[in-house]
Specification:
Layout lengths: L24 E13 L2 E13 H8 L7 H4 L3 E7 L4 H4 L9 E4 L4 H9 L5 E5 L3 H9 L8 E4 H4 L1 H4 L7 H7 L12 H23 L6 H9 L10 H27 L1
Parallel strand pairs: 1-5, 3-4, 5-6
Antiparallel strand pairs: 1-2, 2-3
Helix pairs in contact: 9-10
Length: 260
Amino acid sequence: MAPRWPHTISTWRPKKPKTQFRDVTLVGIDIDELKEQHGLPVQFHIGISILHTKDLHSLCHTSLPWTESQAKVIRSYHWVTQDPTYFCTKDNRFCFGKHKCIPLASLKENLEKLLKPHHPVILIAHGISTEKKLLQDLNINLKPIFIIDTTKAAHYPLQDSRNYSLKLLLQVFGIPVTSGMLHVAGNDAHFVLRILLMIAVSDVRRESKDTPTWVPVFEAIARAPLPQMPLTLHEKAVIGNRKAKGLERLAEDRAQDQAR
């Protein structure tokens, strides 16, 4: 017997203006590769993604196709704490921006500096418990005005009380993803914001006969083409060897020309 659908209040209010949003910043967060000592985090990867409602409002009044900068409206970051040599021996699978390694002691300062221009913020995560505990353990308060867990937020629009995995929600909402992208903190933090946009789209499609003008904008952002995955260490080595061999041949050819 299928579980009964729990009583949940709809998040859509059709009387609100269709293309005006509250001035807030949506901040996706994800923690991965977590290592603890004595119950406290000592090493981990943290992903942060930022989407401002002002940018959404602007795109709602911009004709398609968008410029490259407009299409990259979600800004994403991947930080590795307490492991400065991580990317010397491990492949970089973060594909939505640049990664960096930072000391654990500077994490709070880096987060506050990154988010200071963007308050007030709404914090978004897919399963928020790990992220909340880690921030509390490190005495970091991002001061969100609201927290959204996409595992729960998807219940009503999908009319399903099960907690879907991140991968399954991406598939259900038609959001592109390729093998190797998931379980990378920066990528996952990016994808939770795409999922949130599609949750809003699915919600309004259930509740309203008229399609608000922001719906195709949200869909375009959520389903935007993916950037190329970074080269693996092996691929870089192969390219390096090819370049080295090419330079050797060029040097040999020049030497032969000079000898003639």
